[in-house]
Design brief:
Helix content is 41%, strand content 12%. The protein has 21 helices and 12 strands. A hairpin with a 6-residue loop joins strand 8 and strand 9. The radius of gyration is 22 Å and the shape is globular. The N and C termini lie far apart (54 Å).
């Protein structure tokens, strides 16, 4: 009975547990930004049930489930690390993947010791591409040093940031690269069981991944003796049930365990006490997919790309507001202006009001700062973030009040409810900005108090990210924000 009650409590958290997504329309931030391109579709999205905040089709926004047109895909790096197969024909057969050079890194790692592999990853300068930007080699080192009878590896494929679709295309068009990377990571850190946690909205991705896992197992890549070696490793696919919070790694681990997916208190870190209370490595899909290239080409070759501060390449997902939306691989160091004008070819209509990189929990960058390079420290200095790499452009038809209301509606809807600042604060801000859109005003001191509470007292990055968004609005759009607020 306790197990049944626990399962019911867990299921009640999600909004897509038993919902059909057929015909669903997206009301995520990327589609909100593109609403003026198709007002009728946006109106349908706002009225549709269940609520869906990203379908991974931001280049088609306002998007509808089932639309499968490919975006423009191109690499603008000196060397493509990630898009070789993705930009050409999808590689959905293991034998074909091996013909294109797939598997070489895995065979190489099977002849190396763990310390040598970790040294390569550390020397490459690769950092987590899911948003936190933690050094990948250090994370692997922490896992490898743990003494435990069992360790786990989890690939975070939740990709919940509205505006992002890079992981979806990596998995759908080059699934064996992810599998090979997971094998390399698992063998290196001593994990024998792995999970791919995939968001519920990616139905076609799930079919492709499951077929690839099955084929890899039949070919001896997965199982008790990986490619006839002494290493055991297997992968299971876990499908989410609809929750942005499951992108937060501790909430995701709870979801895999069938627990209510709320963020866990830290410490302890998951490298010590993670999935099923065992040491656990979590990397996102893009991070993992860079690993085979680094192993085969060497750490120095990867570090030579990008900048010394931010080495390597990054995938950027440009939304439908651009003249040429799509998926791009770039080297760090490219200016934001070049992303807008040379990759996206400018906007379909109007003038650029702001650029959001890394999803709704990141800052909005005004047009006057487009000379800023795409690099971790550079963006941090102006209150922005690289994040997951979703690039959402807003034209000048979007008011600051509309944008704040939309972000906090999303934030309130997706809050796990575990901490008061996020659970109540986000909802209050959304409610008052909805009133502002009807001609009202709100007390400036109350706005500031709630933003400060979100920044200082939120349990996880959801609430803190909402505060960072609000602070960027205060910093860059202060005059327009003040028209919404009153000191009385």
């Amino acid at each position: 009975m306790d197990h049944i009650l626990a399962r019911l409590a867990s299921d009640s958290f999600y909004h897509l547990s038993h919902a059909s997504l057929t015909g669903s329309r997206c009301q995520g931030l990327a589609c909100f930004a593109a609403r003026q391109l198709d007002p009728a579709s946006w109106k349908q999205a706002c009225q549709s049930s269940p609520t869906v905040f990203c379908l991974g089709q931001c280049y088609l926004g306002p998007a509808r489930q089932g639309e499968d047109a490919l975006p423009h895909i191109a690499s603008h790096a000196r060397t493509s690390v990630l898009l070789g197969n993705v930009a050409n024909a999808a590689v959905l057969d293991l034998a074909e993947y091996c013909k294109t050079g797939g598997g070489q890194a895995l065979h190489q790692v099977l002849r190396m010791d763990s310390a040598a592999v970790i040294q390569q990853i550390s020397a490459s300068g690769l950092r987590g591409r899911g948003g936190a930007a933690f050094p990948t080699g250090l994370k692997w080192q922490l896992l490898a040093e743990q003494k435990a009878d069992c360790k786990y590896l989890v690939a975070n494929a939740d990709e919940g940031d509205p505006g992002s679709f890079s992981d979806r295309l990596l998995m759908e068009r080059d699934p064996y690269r992810l599998i090979e990377a997971m094998l390399i990571a698992g063998i290196t850190v001593g994990a024998k069981q792995a999970y791919i946690y995939l968001r519920r909205e990616y139905e076609q991705t799930a079919v492709i991944l499951q077929a690839a896992i099955t084929q890899a197992r039949a070919a001896g890549w997965l199982g008790p003796h990986v490619l006839c070696s002494a290493h055991a490793f297997d992968i299971s696919l876990v499908i989410g049930k609809g929750s942005y919070l499951c992108g937060e790694e501790t909430a995701m681990l709870n979801a895999i365990e069938d627990k209510r997916p709320e963020a866990r208190l830290r410490p302890p870190q998951i490298t010590e006490l993670g999935l099923y209370s065992k040491p656990t490595l979590v990397n996102n899909v893009e991070t993992l997919c860079a690993i085979p290239w680094i192993i085969t080409h060497g750490a120095a070759a990867y570090a030579a790309l990008g900048t010394p501060e931010s080495p390597g390449t990054k995938l950027l997902s440009l939304n439908a507001v651009f003249r040429r939306p799509g998926l791009y691989e770039v080297e760090f160091g490219i200016s934001l202006g070049d992303i807008v004008d040379k990759l996206g070819l400018g906007l379909k209509q109007g003038q650029l009001k702001g650029l959001m990189i890394g999803g709704p929990l990141a800052g909005v960058i005004p047009a006057q700062l487009l000379d800023t390079p795409l690099a971790y420290q550079s963006l941090q200095q102006i209150g922005g973030a690289v994040g997951h790499g979703g690039v959402i452009a807003f034209d000048d038809s979007c008011s600051i009040a509309e944008l704040v209301a939309q972000v906090f509606r999303f934030g309130a809807f997706e809050s796990c409810g575990k901490c008061t600042p996020c659970h109540h604060g986000a909802a209050e801000i959304a409610r008052h900005f909805d009133d502002i859109l009807q001609g009202g005003h709100w007390n400036a001191d109350r706005w500031q108090a709630l933003v400060s509470a979100l920044a200082d007292a939120s349990l996880c990055g959801h609430g803190r990210g909402l505060a960072e968004f609000a602070q960027s609005i205060q910093r860059h759009y202060h005059a327009e924000l003040q028209t919404c607020l009153t000191s009385v």
